[in-house]
Amino acid sequence: MENHKELKSVAKFISDFSTCMMAVGAQTSRIERNALRIAKAYHLKAEMLFFQKTMVMTLWDSRNEHSYSMVSRIKPMPLNFEINARLSHLSWRIHDEHIPLNRASKLCQRILDRPRVNPWIVLWLVSFANASFCRLFHGDFISMAIVFVATFIGFFFKQQMQKWHWNEFAVFILSAMFASAFGSLGYLCNWGTTPDMALGTSVLYLIPGVPLINGVMDIIDGHIVTGCCRLFNAALLVSCIAIGLSAILFITGLVTI
């Protein structure tokens, strides 16, 4: 009975730890290594299986006499590389310093409760970054200004819609529409000499780079199912961006059937 309680407590901690890492954008093999490291610190063995929205895990004691299995749902969370790095560091601390489970849980919760970067700072930085992309593709300064404002508008509404818990695909379609609507002003008002760059780069901030990279890395590392799920989800998001951009092109008359 005591073994069962211990397995259950450690399994719940590792499950919460792993699903948080998956939600904030960690690579699957990295999550697995960290989870196995924690299990080893408590003299246990772990077997894990990851999917797009769930994780299945079984813990065994050192003699393979008792086991505990659980299925955990991966909660939606914004990408956060700081949490990713801090949780990885925590797994090493648990392994090297033999931190008790109760204290490890508090340290993990403390990492998750850290205040996030002010969304207004993120909004301004993303807008500047996307305007820089426009310049990188040889857009003029007027086009850069258009892209800055377009990104500011689109990303602001994206933040608000995510706060309202709207469907992810609807968020991407509408965000692409808001950004490209302002990005098309270079064509509609004859502003600048590179209106094509302004329109094309106005939606680049929506490109799901992390899922695309993680999907490829997961497949290379042998996590075929998880990698394919991430790539398929990223492909759907890219399709949503294309739908939003195409809708504005038809509405403004820049493209006709």
TrEMBL record:
It is found in: Cell membrane. It comes from the Bacteria. Keywords: Cell membrane, Membrane, Transmembrane, Transmembrane helix. It is a multi-pass membrane protein. GO terms for biological process: succinate transport. This is Uncharacterized membrane protein YjjP, DUF1212 family. Belongs to the ThrE exporter (TC 2.A.79) family. The chain crosses the membrane at residues 139-157, 169-187, 199-220, 232-255. It comes from Bacteroides luti. GO terms for cellular component: plasma membrane. Coiled coil: none annotated. GO terms for molecular function: transmembrane transporter activity.
